[in-house]
């Protein structure tokens, strides 16, 4: 299986090159040369599979055995999911007769990004070790320097995915004092020598600007071989397709005949895009439901066919980041701060991949033409802050998706409602956006439809929204009812963090220079001692 860029189409990359490159040099995102179909007897053969077995079965359809053998893949997958706390990895929890939640938060940082980042870290390490094993003793080993900015979520999942990995250093910038205490503790209590937390005096946007500047600095980038861990990395999408299959089999055991409808709290469109791939591969499901918060660029697209940064705005929205160094949050105005912060985005970086498929199918299945169309659309978004797609493209998008926008008030109501139901469930605010959208959509569903809402975070991670929603529920006690043991211990643990006094790219460069040579020495020392 080869991969090509949504804006190029000529150059084809191996899976390894695709994963190590992240974003294509032309600004596009990598997609597979074709979407594989499922093997003939998959329904029978796969029905008793564990998450790990399904992962090997699905991933090997996208990775040539010459690149990673099935046995190697099995080892990587087993290692990646050994860090999860639940035997099902992503368990399906029944809420009502017609509603399930697919809990994706049983990984090390209690949010769904762990599912993909645990695997990505092991893939990076596997590729680098293999490349270095082929080198002679005189040649310099290849290393990867991962740099990212975070307001909390992606940073901690990336750190837990890359901690203690050979040949990789990771630098995560966060705005000092502006990250929730739990998320700050999650990041800074990881004391593995290759993990470097930079607390920057400034805002999240300052951190993001620094990361962008580092990626744009060709000399610095080449010297340190900067790597990105953001959600545009193909391996992240691929890893996430697996739980759609697991949910399908687990739901089928409990339901005789029912159409499944997946509802996905959406920001950068990575999680739901994985569902789209599963659907295209042949997993039976109805339309996918895109649930957005008040940052509703996607909900507006499905209403109007316009992909536009600010609702009815003046088109002055600044350009999207070219390198995608962090998860798509923009350094410009227009992003609303909501109770579901991991979905606060201005544009959805992975949406370009869906646009490619829409362009391809409306262009008579011509790859070159589809790439040219997508390139044109994305340039328009960059230049004008908006683009409008032809009606036939919108109609095609509506075949596979429905979109709903959920306000903060609805989010709080939904958390309350599910807590006060006969079988109380505490949903985190992102999951609540999904649960609320599911309800709105269910009003139009035939009775044969069962909904599976993807639950993207543990409620204790977003204590503010949860305590706000349940403030009047006298029997609710945050610490007693939902705070996991792991979080209690976390706040008391030793921390390691590097203070950066000003949001200045030169200061950050100096930190990276210093610690990267130290990290390299450690590697050399461990080699010498072997
Ligand atoms: C990242 C994230 C999302 C959004 O997922 P996308 O793949 O960006 O659409 C939703 N909820 C939580 C808790 C997240 O961390």
Descriptive overview:
- With 530 residues, the chain is an alpha/beta fold.
- It has a domain at 237-348 and 401-481: Rossmann fold, CATH 3.40.50.
- It has 21 helices and 15 strands.
- It has helices spanning 15-21, 42-45, 51-59, 70-81, 113-133, 153-162, 181-188, 204-216, 218-224, 234-254, 270-281, 297-304, 351-362, 367-384, 391-400, 408-419, 429-442, 463-469, 478-481, 485-490, 505-529; strands spanning 3-5, 30-32, 92-96, 99-103, 144-149, 168-175, 195-200, 226-227, 259-265, 288-292, 306-308, 386-388, 401-405, 449-455, 498-500.
- It has a six-stranded mixed sheet with strand order 3-4-14-9-10-13, sandwiched between helices.
- α11 (270-281) links the parallel β9 (259-265) and β10 (288-292).
- α16 (408-419) crosses α17.
- The longest helix is centred in the last third of the chain and has 25 residues, at 505-529.
- The chain is globular, with a radius of gyration of 22 Å.
- It starts with a strand and ends with a helix.
- Residues 312-332 have low confidence and may be disordered.
- The protein binds pyridoxal-5'-phosphate.
- Pyridoxal-5'-phosphate is lined by residues 111-113, 153, 231, 265-271, 342-343, 430, 456-457.
- Residues 111-113, 153, 231, 265-271, 342-343, 430, 456-457 line the site of pyridoxal-5'-phosphate (PLP).
- Belongs to the threonine synthase family.
- It holds the Pfam family PALP.
- Its EC number is 4.2.3.1.
- This is threonine synthase.
- It comes from Gloeophyllum trabeum (strain ATCC 11539 / FP-39264 / Madison 617).
